[in-house]
Design a protein that fits this description.
By secondary structure, this protein is mainly alpha-helical. It has helices spanning 2-16, 26-32, 34-71, 77-131, 155-167; strands at residues 21-25, 135-139. The termini are far apart.
Length: 168
């Protein structure tokens, strides 16, 4: 009889210990996080710098192409071949520079996004421990969480704290 009472008491204690769960709308969090907004502005500015650089290279090249077409009829076949070869080389250089700029932007975006994600993940882990959550689920829109009571949505709370921390 004592064993049954002890087992029943232990069972009652275990069942009283409920798991504390919350969820975060990651899409909203990242969209409204000031660090993400600043990153987008920074990348857009860098993209504009690259675009201006490429435009400054493209303009003179276009003039050379137009000039070539004006005088091409008067050139010997050898002169035309040399001019076309030089134009092709310059065009290949421009394309390579454009590809390099694009890859540079993609790499920087990826690195910064990964760093941002790691920071948010670390923050959420600290937040969960401080608030006593055993599980915080990340969702995109309502895609993964089919239903969640709004009381369990801690997106706004975390966003406010992250933005305060970022503004420091």
């Amino acid at each position: 009889m004592k064993k049954i009472l002890i087992i029943a008491f232990a069972f009652a204690l275990v069942s009283c210990n409920q798991t504390k769960i919350a969820y975060i709308d990651v899409e909203d969090l990242m969209k409204d996080y000031n660090a993400t907004k600043d990153l987008e502005v920074k990348l857009k500015a860098k993209q504009e710098v690259f675009a201006k650089e490429l435009d400054s290279l493209q303009g003179p090249f276009q003039l050379k192409v137009q000039e070539y077409y004006k005088v091409a009829q008067k050139m010997s076949p050898q002169q035309r071949a040399e001019a076309e070869g030089a134009l092709q080389q310059e065009q290949q250089f421009l394309q390579a520079r454009q590809q390099q700029a694009s890859e540079e932007l993609q790499k920087e975006n990826l690195e910064n996004s990964e760093a941002l994600t790691k920071k948010v993940d670390s923050f959420v882990a600290d937040y969960a421990k401080a608030k006593g959550y055993q599980l915080i689920i990340g969702t995109s829109g309502k895609g993964t969480v089919m239903y969640g009571d709004e009381k369990m949505n801690v997106t706004t709370d975390i966003l406010e704290i992250l933005n305060k921390d970022y503004s420091k």
